[in-house]
Amino acid sequence: MTDSGLSRPRAARRASNLHAPSARRPPDSMDIAPRLLAWFDEHGRHDLPWQRERTPYTVWVSEVMLQQTQVTTVVPFYLRFIARFPTVETLATAPLDEVLKHWSGLGYYARARNLWSAARAVVERHGGRVPETFDDLHALPGIGRSTAGAILAQACGARFPILDGNVKRVLARHHAVAGWPGERDAQDELWALAERHTPEERVADYTQAIMDLGATLCTRARPACTVCPLAESCIACRAGTQAKYPGPRPKRSRPRRSVTVLVVEDPDGCVLLARRPARGIWGGLYSFPELQGGDTAAEWCARTLGASVAAERELATIEHGFTHFDLDLAPRWLRLAAAPRVVQDRDDLLWHRPSEAPAVGIPAPVAALFGTLAKGL
User: Fold this and answer.
1) Catalytic residue at 265?
2) Cys-Cys with 255: which of 262, 295, 325, 355 at CB 3.0–4.6 Å?
3) Cα dist. 291→24, 231, 298, 338 in Å?
4) Comparing C-alpha atoms, which of 112, 203, 96, 187 is closest to residue 145?
5) Regarding beta strands 326-336 and 256-265, do their DSSP bridges make them parallel or antiparallel, or are they unpaired?
6) Over the stretch 287-312, which tens digit does the pLDDT of each residue have?
């Protein structure tokens, strides 16, 4: 079976229309592709769900999910997501709340919002067919250079390099590329190496192979160099300097934020959820309302819900880490004295019974607290 399921002439014609790198690679004494492919044939991962039918859409969804997330975590989310949204059209026409619900627990929710927006753009601009040119893919929300390359390489068999976190680590060690990969000079050098090593044939297998190598052998800690197919030519391995590559991110102070959230329960045992703004943390998901300004919890309930508070107490603080900061959620549980009077007219607020599965996307800390509420405080 070819990488794309297409005959080579058709794949070649398609590739000629892409924003492709140079057509032919110069000979390279450190060529890694043959060794990687031989290793992949015997030891690589061949049964991942998105490998069963490599289409631009399935590869796209998997690549977005795999950004900053491990394969073992992604697999069950991918299966559920594809079962509900098997085509671009079903994703584009679904409510964003439902898309976020199927993403809940996977984190980095901007990925889901961008995926949904891009699906709508594919329907509007491309008739529901995922584009197969680099420029058209790269123009879609949430699709960067590496993701576009992965889609074209794995679904179309076109020669495009990729540079995800695993690939950066493999290439940085193999060629002793100094510096943090997020810095421009290091990134440019890694892209040049990725382009140089991408083969003409079996592009889909090669891209999976180099990602697999980084995920299973060339790991961040304790790389398995003794069984690595690239050890003989790896500069870092030969020098015993694997721990130096890739270079670490420059240290910055990690801020900590604290916010008070209201766990408002009505007389029927339902808890209030509020949709978060589209931008910012947990964008578009439903969470507990935040208490801001100089308001007390009772004042907020009186103004927002038209109801008084019958009981109130503090719950244990929830600590949650994001990429660039830590967040302390300080929940205050409130029991309303009577049913609210004003919330019915607002589409950004809804009541939810903690013992039931939510119909909207909620962040992991909120889901955890729901579990506590369902068992009884």
Assistant:
1) no
2) 325
3) 60, 56, 10, 21
4) 187
5) parallel
6) 899 888 778 888 888 888 888 888 88
Q: 318-352 pLDDT, tens per residue?
A: 888 777 778 888 898 989 988 887 655 567 888 88
| Cα gap 347→172, rounded to integer Å | 50
Q: Locate 125 and state its tokens.
A: 């601009």
Q: Calculate the CA dihedral of residues 317, 319, 322, 324 and round it to 10 degrees.
A: 90
364, with CB counted inside 10 A (0-12, 13-18, 19+), is middle
**All domains of the chain, ordered by start, with CATH?**
8-244 (1.10.340.30), 256-375 (3.90.79.10)
Distance, in Å, from the CA atom of 152 to the CA atom of 203, rounded to the nearest integer, reads 9
- Amino acid, res. 14: R
- Whether 81 has a pLDDT exceeding 80, the answer reads yes
Q: Please tell me the predicted confidence (pLDDT) of residue 221.
A: 93
pLDDT value of residue 102: 93
What are φ and ψ of residue 363, in 5° steps?
A: -70, 160
Whether the CB-CB separation of 249 and 328 falls below 8 Å is answered with no
Select which of 42, 53, 63, 356 is catalytic. Answer: 63
- Under 8 Å between Cβ of 206 and 157: no
Residue 377 has pLDDT above 70, yes or no: no
H helices present in the chain, as ranges: 8-16, 33-43, 56-66, 71-84, 88-93, 96-103, 110-126, 134-138, 145-156, 165-175, 184-197, 203-216, 235-239, 297-305, 364-375
User: What φ, ψ does residue 257 adopt, rounded to 5°?
Assistant: -115, 155
Tokens of 86: 């098997």
Could you read off the pLDDT of 47-63 as tens digits, one per residue? 899 998 899 999 999 99
pLDDT of 85 reads 97
CA nearest neighbour of 221 among 238, 239, 246: 246
Residues 195-220 have pLDDT tens digits of 999 999 999 999 999 999 999 999 99
Instruction: Write out the H or E segment, with its range, that includes residue 326.
Output: strand 326-336
300: three-class secondary structure by DSSP: helix
Rg of the Cα atoms in the chain: 25
- Residue 246: alpha-carbon gap to chain centroid: 21
